[in-house]
Every structure is written in C-alpha cells, then in structure tokens.
Amino acid sequence: MANPEEILELWLIRHGETDWNRERRIQGQQQNPLSSLGETQARRLGSRLIGETFDTVYCSDLKRTLQTAELAFPGLPLTFDKRLREISRGVLEGRRGQDFAGEHLEHYTAMQRDLYSYRPPGGENHYDVQDRAVAWLESLPRRGRIAAVTHGGVVTALVRHALGLRELTTWLHVGNTSISRLRLGETWTEILGFNDTAHLEPRPDLHAL
Amino acid sequence: MCELWLIRHAQTVWNGEKRIQGQSDTPLSDKGVQQAVRLAERLGGVTFDAVYASDSGRAVHTARLVFGDRPIALEPRLREMSYGTLEGKTRTELVGAERDAFLAYWHDPYEVKTPGGESWRDLDARVAAWLGTLPHQGRVAAVSHGGTIRSALFYVTGAPRAREWNAYFSNTGITRLRLGPPRSILLSHNDAAHLESSGLEDDGEP
User: Fold this and answer.
1) Given an 8 Å threshold on Cβ–Cβ distance, is B183 in contact with A172?
2) ipTM of this model?
3) What residues contact B176, with CB distance under 8 A and at least 6 apart?
4) Cα–Cα–Cα angle for A59, A78, A128, rounded to 5 degrees
C-alpha cells in the first residue's frame, strides 16, 4: 500500500488597506502603516480565522503586513521573510500615475508598457518577485498548513507559478486582506481559491483595493 | 466590462460517490440542496442583469434554489464535458478497454475524446462561443460545471491548457471575472466562503 501523499495547504493573505493604497500611490517596499479601514479589515479577517490552525504563520517584514498579521493571528508567533515583500519599485515609489514628469515619466511609461519585465531604477520586475517568492515556496515543508501575510505582487507571482506561467495577459485582482489558497504535493500544485474577501461582505465600504 | 459570476452546481449524489458524471444527470444530494440554500442567502442582495444555467438537471436545480423564480436562460453550451460511455462509473470501476480509453484521454485531454464523448478542444470551443454572446456590461451569473468553468477560466486568462488539472472547483464555488476589452480581470476563483464552518464544505477531492 502506497504512503499517503503529503500535501501542504498554503493560505496567502494580502495586508489590509494603507492610505497609499487608497491614494493609488506606488507603495513598493515603503513602510506605511495600515489605515483605520485596513485595521478593521484585518480584525474581520481575524474573526473569520478563529478556529483555523496553522503550523507556521509567515509574514513579510514590512509594517503593513506585520500589523495585519498581529490583528489576524493575535498572539501567534510570526516567521518574517524578506522574500515575501512587495515588489520594489525604486525611484517610482511614493507617487501616483498622474504625478510623473520628465525622466520619471519615461520610467513609468516603460513600466506600463513592459509590465512584467521592466525594472525601474533601484527596483525589481515581476520576474524577480516570482523568483524570490518561488524560492520561499520551495523552502516550505510539503505537509501541514501554512499561512503567509504578504503583498499583491507575491500572491500573483505564486498563482502564476501554480499555472506554470511567467506572465499572464489577464489582471489578477488581489484585494486587501484577501485569502488565496494553494495545495502543493510532491510534484504538483493546485489553486484552491483566489482572492476571497468574503469576511468583508456584505459591506461594500469595507472593500478598498 | 461585463462581470461574470460562474457558479459550479451543488453536490449531487454521484459527486458524493465520486462517479464520472459528464452529461449524465443525478439529483442534488441533501447536502447539495443545503449548499445551494446557503449560496442563495449570501447572494440575496446582489443584482444580476441575467442568469444562465447549463440545461443539465443539477445546474438548473441549483439555479432555481439560488435565484428563485427570476428568469433563467438555459444554455446547452454550458454543459459539462461529455465523458461518453465512461459516465456513471468510478475511476476504479474502469477496466480493460474502457480503462485504456480513459488513460488515453487523460494523457492528452485536449486532443483525445473520451469514447462517445468530447475532448477539451470540443468543450473549449463551445464555451468560447457562449462567452462571445455576453453583453459588454452589467453583471451576469451562470450556473455550470467544474470542467466548463475551468475551460472559461483558462480561456479568459489565456493560461495554457496543461495536462494537469491545477485549479479546483468546489460545489457552489464562485469564480468571478470581468471580461475585457480592455484587459480581462480575475476577481476571484472558487469562492465557497458561504460553506465555511457549516459541515457543507466539499470533501476536497475533485
């Protein structure tokens, strides 16, 4: 009789709203805190997660993910990992699309055109993020249940990885405090769910980005 | 952009027994009826401009439970892929020539049809045709089947149809898409939150 296959169930959670999310500012690896809406979202997630157990809770080491994890997984030890950080956008961080002029406008335009491959000065591209996210993923044991509080760029990178893709023509929308879930076996990966924000229903005002 | 909510039908008696269902029909199980009722409660406040359902009994029944007596457009192109003469059997019951035929399909599901049935290519063609008839705005719901929803998801996202089935679809799970142009957006895949902590969740195996 064959050994039952060991399977890892992975819950990927995006942090709650920050003021810069609402203002549509490129946030990258800046250390912005949650807005008060973001704190509410994270608490709602925390209520939903009562009774769910995880072997480990990983967390990007940026402020917004730490705050989200503290509210969603109160009292649990957190394992920080830089590989779970948002995509770094270098010189473009802090501004909105309409704020760019001159040289920075050229960088921004190039980024819109080459969405996956363009690296702004001092920043990363989406291939870089996928490489580091997958390195983190491959470091995980293939059993049990793990949660990771992270960012949109990392969630989309891992979903694309599950589909065997470097890039995707469709936009993958990752909401604040959304849950996306993967199952991983020895040789396969399955997407169980993507962008679940049911804990924010039925209040449209709780959805930010 | 049209916002499309694709909903897999509720659990049937054969889902519970892990039988290959395809275009054969079995009634919803008691658990399935409860799943549909939960979804109805959740969607109470959501407005849809149109509701479609595959014309298979399990999809129509699910749609009636979820959407009440609003008009439901029955759509044969939203049926599950046909598994021909394999339908009704569990995988472990397949032996001899039938087992060989199933494995041949399994190894190349895009090109190889099931005996008396369809291939993924056939399924993809009819799903793409139906998607092309949708309006360019508003919100539309469609109650359908796992294989069909997977086909729509892969078609809209342009992801390659790899041999492995690597996206799971729960009974009454919701997959939401905004259809381009411009770029399409995947808003959610397999949201079955209404079943959480209820004892009505899927067993976790396709």
Assistant:
1) no
2) 0.91
3) B3, B4, B5, B6, B186, B187, B188, B191
4) 25
C-alpha distances in Å from residue B45, one per residue of A201, A204, B39: 11, 11, 11
CA distances from A186 to A5, A166, A189, B103 (A): 8, 21, 8, 22
Mean pLDDT by 10 residues, chain A (209 residues): 77 97 94 96 97 97 98 97 97 91 89 92 96 97 96 96 88 96 92 96 72
Closest CA to A26 of A110, A120, A101: A120
Alpha helices by DSSP H, A23-72: 36-48, 63-72
Q: Which residue type is seen at A85?
A: R
Distance between CA A187 and CA B205 in Å, rounded? 17
Q: How many angstroms separate the CA atoms of A105 and A97, rounded?
A: 9
H or E, element range at A107: helix A102-113
- The residues of A annotated with a catalytic role in the active site are 15, 86
Q: Output the pTM of the full model.
A: 0.93
CB-closest option in A190, A196, A198 to B166: A190
Write out chain B residues lying below 8 Å of A190, CB-based: 165-168
Please tell me the distance from the alpha carbon of residue A19 to that of residue A5, in angstroms, as a whole number: 44
- Measured in degrees and rounded to the nearest 5, phi and psi for residue A121 equal -55, 130
Residue found under tokens 């359902």? B53
Please check whether residue B192 touches A, CB under 8 A.
Answer: yes
**Looking at CA atoms only, how far is residue A177 from chain B in angstroms?**
13
